[in-house]
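Q: What residues go here?
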């Protein structure tokens, strides 16, 4: 498996119904006072069973650090960690041992490896993201304390948070189950997810992430562009289908005169359609991007499919599944963004004497 990161890197292990998930973070600098509570807080935001609009699998998601941290400080050696699984219901997946679920990784894993763990999707399960939250929560502590990384649910299906992020109070994000900072929109989103869940169906949407106070100069020319590294990380998330930053696809409808961000005398810009990134490098303005997520592929209603021999079958999802991934994906987006920024921040420290 490939690693996440360039200098700061993460490799992971684990399957959905295995003993544990875990990872190893390499090249983490020594001497950092680690806030372990901050790491666990992000895990608690991601874990299942926290509301009626997410999967009811009950996992404590408590991280145990095995190496690389001594007396509250990083030692400079690889940081190893595990998160034990303790609430698997593997019998819910026995009917999938020879079946291929529509829009899942069942077929592609079988073709690539010749074998697959069908219990909860094995390595293709979104439970893998628990590793990324640990690594990203640690990595964020390498960044200047002034850097703010905030994600929130900006749409569910056709329900959009119409307010620009500048007009939102981010302290309200965790005040509701869907993690949308606009309370009126949040109520509509929650009602929609509950309606979809009753139908045995699922729904998608978008998450917006805003990064404030990132120093100028983060990001590498050509193949290490900041937006490219962010996109790679975000599109690695299970169910992610699209990424746009700044003006995104709307910029394709504009002229250069409309789109150019003119400078102020203090080197800020009058507008920020560039999304805080120019030439692949941060320019000091807010970085903002959106990630689009598809509906969860497992639906609790009959669907036509095939088995591994190509025979037609009728398949119906069983077990505990998210009707919408968005609320639990918010800390995942924040954590991956943190890891990417910390990695490029460390690389940038080597650029000038």
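A:
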């Amino acid at each position: 498996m490939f690693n996440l990161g360039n200098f700061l890197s993460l490799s992971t292990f684990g399957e959905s119904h295995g003993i544990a998930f875990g990872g190893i973070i390499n090249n983490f600098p020594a001497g950092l006072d680690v806030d372990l509570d901050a790491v666990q807080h992000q895990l608690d935001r991601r874990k299942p069973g926290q509301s009626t609009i997410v999967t009811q699998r009950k996992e404590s998601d408590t991280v145990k650090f095995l190496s690389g941290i001594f007396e509250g400080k990083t030692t400079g050696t690889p940081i190893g960690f595990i998160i034990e699984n303790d609430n698997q219901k593997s019998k819910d997946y026995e009917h999938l041992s020879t079946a291929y679920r529509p829009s899942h990784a069942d077929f592609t894993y079988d073709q690539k490896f010749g074998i697959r763990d069908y219990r909860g999707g094995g390595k293709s399960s979104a439970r893998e993201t628990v590793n990324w939250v640990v690594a990203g929560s640690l990595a964020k502590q390498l960044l200047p304390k002034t850097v703010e990384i905030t994600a929130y649910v900006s749409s569910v299906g056709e329900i959009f948070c119409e307010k620009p992020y500048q007009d939102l109070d981010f302290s309200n994000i965790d005040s509701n189950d869907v993690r949308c900072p606009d309370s009126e929109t949040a109520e509509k989103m929650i009602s929609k997810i509950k309606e979809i869940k009753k139908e045995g169906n699922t729904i998608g949407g978008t998450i917006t992430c805003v990064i404030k106070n990132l120093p100028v100069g983060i990001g590498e020319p050509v193949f290490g562009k900041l937006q490219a590294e962010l996109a790679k990380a975000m599109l690695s998330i299970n169910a992610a289908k699209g990424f746009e930053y700044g003006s995104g696809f709307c910029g394709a409808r504009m002229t250069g005169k409309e789109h150019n961000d003119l400078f102020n005398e203090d080197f800020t810009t009058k507008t920020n359609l560039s999304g805080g990134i120019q030439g692949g490098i941060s320019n000091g303005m807010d970085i903002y991007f959106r990630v689009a997520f598809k509906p969860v592929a497992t639906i609790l209603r009959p669907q036509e499919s095939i088995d591994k021999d190509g025979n037609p079958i009728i398949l119906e999802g069983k077990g505990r599944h998210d009707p919408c991934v968005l609320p639990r994906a918010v800390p995942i987006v924040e954590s991956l963004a943190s890891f990417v920024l910390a990695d490029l921040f460390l690389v940038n420290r080597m650029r000038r004497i």
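A: Context that may help when evaluating the design: The chain has seven helices and 16 strands. The longest helix spans residues 326-349.
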